Amino acid sequence: MSYRILVIDDSPLARGTARDILTAADYDVVEAVDGQDGLDKARQYQPHLILLDMILPKLDGQQVFQALQASRTTKSTPVIFLAAGSEARLQSLAAKAGAFAGVAKPVEPKVLLDIVAAALDQRRTAGRG
After folding, report:
1. Which terminus of the chain is more exposed, N or C, with fewer CB under 10 A?
2. What is the DSSP string of 17-41?
3. pLDDT tens for residues 42-74?
């Protein structure tokens, strides 16, 4: 089974980096360029996991995350926050919000793949495929 991951980031470089890392690991990647596009694609593609930049046009990462949590179809989808800055601060923000994790940008390939695998493993053991 190929897992579908939605990458919501307004930076073409950041999206491309995440896409390259994830597709090399045999994940199916869908990209969104802003918060509203991310919500639309989350509904359309029903991803197994979402990588969510916190600073986005139209709707910021917090607004997108709240909308995902409020939707019956996406509330159980693991979300990993992405942002520049301190890894500790981002982890704290993710934990307080109820996201799976936070990863500092620029992302390190091994770190990203390890966190993605852990999130998908938790989803699988929870019986959500």
Report:
1. N
2. HHHHHHHHTT-EEEEESSHHHHHHH
3. 999 999 999 999 999 999 999 999 999 999 999
In eight-state DSSP terms, residue 89 is: H
14 pLDDT above the threshold of 70:
yes
Name the band, by pLDDT with cuts 50, 70 and 90, for residue 1: low
d(CA 63, CA 84): 18
**CA atoms of 84 and 106, how far apart (whole Å):** 7
User: How many independent structural domains does the chain possess?
Assistant: 1
Distance of CA 41 to the CA centre of its chain: 12
Structural domain including 41 reads 4-125
